[in-house]
């Protein structure tokens, strides 16, 4: 059930059969959520780490007048904040975009796993650092890129993240994100997003149809986005820690 997480972590190091069995053991208690449901709300006391098995979700912050900023998207294999249970209360919320199936990993289970399995611990450190790198890149996106570059960059990032865990089919992947959600993630209006998507379609950079994204020419989309995938760190920096080394 946790093959997406395992596949992602193995971009850092090769895990042993025992490591994989331990991770698979995390999937005993599964929670199902409908689209739009809050997985955790701002102000809630976090007591476990959420691990996505299936479905998409977003991390967001909402102002008192209803304006929303989406700060990240979660796909299968993602963990929501490895040490979130250290906090007394949540300072943001996480909501399901699609039907979501996730595992709630209790604090004591995660801490025990990390105490006993150092290779998994290092791989989870890597996952945490990659998430921080993604947040830095999103800051650059909001502060310096044009509207077309922002959207193209987001499409590149999500496509490559999905490809890394085996969730692309050639140059196509699932893409359930609405134009309103794209606007809230890129700091644009929905009207501006709509106009920019038309421009991207006309240029042959993307095809969006039936909640699917097709990238006819990834190199061209990367060029349009000024996209450098180095911040995703998918080049096995931890190869020297491999169980098969």
UniProtKB/TrEMBL annotation:
Query: Which domain of life does this protein belong to?
Result: Bacteria
Q: Which UniProt keywords apply?
A: DNA-binding, Transcription, Transcription regulation
- Which residues does the UniProt record annotate as the domain Cyclic nucleotide-binding? 11-131
**What protein name does the entry list?**
Transcriptional regulator, Crp/Fnr family
Question: For the HTH crp-type domain, which residue ranges apply?
Answer: 145-219
Q: Which GO terms describe its cellular component?
A: cytosol
Q: Which Pfam families match?
A: cNMP_binding, HTH_Crp_2
Q: Does the keyword Transcription regulation apply?
A: yes
Q: Which InterPro entries match?
A: cNMP-bd_dom (IPR000595), cNMP-bd_dom_sf (IPR018490), Env_Response_Regulators (IPR050397), HTH_CRP (IPR012318), RmlC-like_jellyroll (IPR014710), WH-like_DNA-bd_sf (IPR036388), WH_DNA-bd_sf (IPR036390)
Q: Which organism is it from?
A: Methylobacterium gregans
Q: Which PROSITE patterns match?
A: CNMP_BINDING_3, HTH_CRP_2
Q: Which GO terms describe its molecular function?
A: DNA binding; DNA-binding transcription factor activity
Q: Which SUPFAM superfamilies does this entry report, sorted A to Z? A: cAMP-binding domain-like (SSF51206), Winged helix' DNA-binding domain (SSF46785)
